[in-house]
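Chain A, query sequence.
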Amino acid sequence: MSIESQGKTLISGVRGEFSGLFQSLLGATKDTLITLFKKSNFVDYKFWIFIYLSMCISSHMELSPQDIKGAWRGLLSLVLFFLVINFIIIGLETTGFSAHFGSWWRYVKIESYASGINKWVGTFGALFIFATIISGLNFIVTYIFLNIYSSIKGKGLVNPFWN
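Chain A, predicted structure.
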């Protein structure tokens, strides 16, 4: 199963409402795990290179406070932009003013682009789920080996939540 098809699984469960979001995320996570840990993958050297590179990347990813601060401003800007655009479109349709624009009004409406937008949102969602799984696996493997090393040195178990 490809990332794109997993993205379709993620989006198909939601269908415009938040009630199906958890089930959709759970289904996409299950599909990702099944795809990632197929029996045929374990004998393919490319799979092991992929896992190694994924673990290397996920173990060295950390956002700085400035990255997070910039991301919040960017997210807020995007949300406000689309909110204003949607309010303008809804206002034009509610007042009936959109009827004066003729046939090209369908190019302005965001609903015309919904399937393309959903495809990208689903793909990025599936990639996010994959990245979360790889980061979680990296944490678990690192934590186990670190505890084994720490126990051999006589220092006991390591607290993963220290400051």
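The helical segments are 3-12, 21-36, 45-59, 65-94, 105-108, 114-152. Residues 3-152 form one domain.
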